[in-house]
């Protein structure tokens, strides 16, 4: 897996914090407090990347929202694939396709659902999946 420069990730975080998107204004305080780049914003969780290259999860609807490590490979890949739509450099973080991976039967390996690009495919956008891979603790 290729790593991105911590300086680049910090610059993207700074860009996010000055962005004018009113739909994401609520996310700026936790991003500022925890220094992470939002990669995927779900209904109740946001998946992100820290400058040190670690993946994190911020649960905005938890009783006491806080940052937790995100160690499940499926959710990391999904977050990367979704964020790479606007920041293509993030695709360098995707691991190589494992030999036991299978082409996604939903998208046919395209990574997106034809006619519905806003819907995240069950492969997360990678175009492939690993049989019996852990997908527990999904973000909301």
Number of strands: 6
Residue share in β-strands: 15-25%
Strand order of the largest sheet: 1-2-3-4
The ordered string of helix (H) and strand (E) elements is HHEEEEHEE
Alpha-carbon Rg, integer: 15 Å
Shape: globular
- The low-confidence parts are none
In which range does the helix fraction lie? 10-25%
* Alpha-beta content class: alpha+beta
**Separate helix tally:** 3
What does the main sheet amount to?
4 strands, antiparallel
Distance between the termini: 27 Å
What do you see in this structure?
- It is a single chain.
- With 140 residues, the protein is α+β, with helices and mostly antiparallel strands.
- The chain has helices at residues 6-18, 28-34, 73-83; strands spanning 37-41, 45-49, 55-59, 67-69, 102-103, 128-129.
- The chain has a four-stranded antiparallel beta sheet, with helices on both faces.
Please tag this protein with its features.
single chain; alpha+beta; four-stranded antiparallel beta sheet; two-stranded antiparallel ribbon; 6 strands; globular
Quick synopsis:
The protein is an alpha+beta fold. It is 22% helix and 16% strand.
């Amino acid at each position: 897996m290729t790593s991105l420069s911590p300086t680049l990730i910090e610059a993207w975080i700074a860009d996010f914090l000055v962005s004018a998107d009113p739909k994401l204004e609520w996310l700026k305080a936790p991003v500022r407090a925890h220094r992470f780049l939002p990669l995927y914003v779900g209904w109740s969780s946001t998946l992100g990347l820290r400058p040190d290259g670690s993946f994190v999860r911020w649960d905005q609807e938890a009783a006491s929202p806080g940052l937790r490590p995100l160690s499940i490979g499926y959710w990391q890949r999904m977050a990367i694939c979704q964020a790479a739509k606007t920041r293509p450099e993030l695709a360098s973080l995707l691991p190589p396709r494992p030999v036991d991976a299978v082409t996604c039967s939903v998208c046919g390996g395209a990574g997106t659902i034809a006619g519905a690009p806003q819907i995240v495919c069950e492969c997360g956008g990678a175009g492939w999946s690993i049989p019996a891979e852990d997908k527990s603790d999904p973000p909301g």
